[in-house]
Amino acid sequence: MADLPARKREILLNAFDMNCVVHQSPGLWRHPRDRADRYVDLSYWTDLARILERGRFDALFLADVLGVYDVYGGKTDTALREGTQVPLCDPMLTVSAMAAATEHLGFGITCTLSYEPPFTFARRMSTLDHLTRGRVGWNIVTGYLDSAARGVSGAATQKTHDTRYAIADEYLDLVYKLWEGSWEDGAVLRDRARGVFTEPSRVHRIRHEGAFFKLDAIHLCEPSPQRTPVLFQAGTSGKGRDFAASHAECVFMAAPSKAVARGYVTDIRRRAVENGRGADALRIFNLTTAIVGRTDEEAREKHADYRRYVSHAGALALMSGWTGIDFSIYDLDEPVRYIKNEAVHSAVESFTTADPDRIWTVREVAEWVGIGGFGPVLVGSAATVADQMEEWIAETGIDGFNLAYVVTPETFADVADLLVPELQRRGRYKTEYRPGTLREKLFGDGPRLSLPHPGARRRGVAEAGR
Predict the structure, then answer these.
(1) CATH number of the domain to which 218 belongs
(2) Is residue 214 a contact partner of residue 208, using CB atoms and an 8 Å limit?
């Protein structure tokens, strides 16, 4: 492909999970080998973290949503009955324990900025960056459920899609000021002899007055190893791509086909260049599910076994929430058409306008989403799946994969124990972790944001109007 940079670098892998029973494979919690219903048990998370570190995963990417999937049929009944991302616990509270159980594994935490005050959120992320020794990332999302707006602010609906991104731009500028500009390097002295812990002249008040936020305070935490966490972004709408090109270091997309992925990747990297950051400034991950067996036949048998547990109702409840379209009112054989609303624009685009050569019916979408969500499902032996991954990398320009599970922890253990050794044999996957923070492991540079990233430009900028 002439429009994508050639890359033979190591493939990156994140595990994709959520602090709930059903994340991306509705109905599979009923499988006799699935352990997702232990999500409230801390040992579930520490055991998972050890499996992922054994497989040299780059990070555990934790999804989250503030709200309930109540678009399907206009009620929460289906989501509740199916366990579809409800009940749901806070993902952030699991990270400290998983970090203590591992040495290198990173953690990408989804936090919805529409409902998080930037001052307190900045402190929580700095705290986790300290406790993990610099292994945290933030998946920046703006929300997509009206039920979240009703639950958090009492508003009948969420703010419009474009307004949410305008808020996000200002929010990012404010937290950059807190993380990068409030405390100078060397502000913390820990000088026992003089009795001085922090030099006051090196700590600066942030004064911010914008269209959406007003703040006059110092950041409460001393500088953490990365200061700003690694920045993930998970929206591939037009506004989402603009935002990613400006702010993101890692982009998470959910393209069902190489054609859709290739278009997204080309456009996002082009926008990054236009923002002065360079096409290679971003690491791009596509949502993917890998069902790996010792042989192709064993993998196909696993896949067939898993499919027996898929819940079509649960899949359509997810799809309705993601797109804002009530799929309960459509015939299963009706084609999915593009409808623009205030939910996730890229979700419905992936199955409509992004790939004009493919017409999806509602039934086909339910079947597709039923195993692993939007992304492709790769089925086969370690060699077969490794071939498919290399094809995706070569043909789309992505850097790696956010791997959803079908049955947990089985799906992740199969990747760690079967697929990873095959990728290592091919020289496409690390045999050891790089030292340092998550940013250093992913990019090979220093622990902090570097210019021309807008966060790096906020160092030393702490006064009003600057």
Answers:
(1) 3.20.20.30
(2) yes
